[in-house]
Design a protein that fits this description.
- The chain has one domain: Gcn5-related N-acetyltransferase (GNAT) (Aminopeptidase).
- The chain is 31% helix and 29% strand.
- It is built from six helices and seven strands.
- The protein has helices at residues 13-25, 42-52, 56-59, 89-93, 111-122, 140-148, and strands spanning 3-7, 65-72, 77-84, 98-102, 130-136, 152-159, 162-170.
- The model has no long low-confidence stretch (mean pLDDT 95).
Length: 174
């Protein structure tokens, strides 16, 4: 099966709606949060994602970020991965550089590992030496995904009443 990462601007409205509707119908917390529409039209979501890549993000209390979707050869959106270009204090504690999620019907098929691996590979030509990923201490799927992509556990911390793991993944050697 052919899989690829597509930047948000390469996704059509129907592809996105098919993906996000599955999350909404399952009443799940949408992961990554940035992928949700939260009452916005598709055009409004696209504008927001574009602004997220710019300094406008700082004005909203965030850091610049880019959203990608994992798609198969039929252009079905399987998952989303959100790359934050830098960390602020909150992201250093919880959130990290990368957040990702796979739609419910496509979980446990190795897509999270593939998507994270593809994003990490795309960063090898950047100035970024390492990235931080966090997950809840009881999220076995994310723990396995991060560790399978060479994540090194730094520590476990309490964040907003939940035990969270913080992992670093080296992009390039010194």
């Amino acid at each position: 099966m052919t899989l690829s990462l597509a930047k948000y601007s390469e996704i059509g409205e129907q592809e996105y709606l098919d993906y996000i509707t599955e999350w909404e119908l399952n009443n799940e917390h949408i992961v990554p949060y940035a992928v949700g529409r939260y009452g916005r039209s598709f055009d409004q979501v696209m504008i927001k994602w574009h602004e997220d890549e710019t300094n406008v993000a700082y004005e909203k209390g965030f850091v610049p970020s880019t959203l990608f979707f994992l798609i198969n050869g039929d252009r079905k959106v399987l998952g989303a991965i959100h790359f934050r270009h830098e960390l602020n204090e909150k992201l250093l504690q919880n959130g990290g550089h990368i957040g990702y999620g796979i739609r419910k019907s496509e979980r446990q098929k190795g897509y999270a590992h593939k998507m994270l691996s593809m994003l990490l590979k795309s960063l090898t030509d950047s100035d970024i030496e390492k990235v931080l990923l966090t997950c809840d201490d009881n999220n076995i799927g994310s723990i396995k995904t991060i560790e399978s992509c060479h994540g090194i556990l730094q520590d476990k911390i309490m964040f907003e009443g939940k035990l969270s793991r913080r992992y670093w993944i080296r992009i390039k050697d010194k």
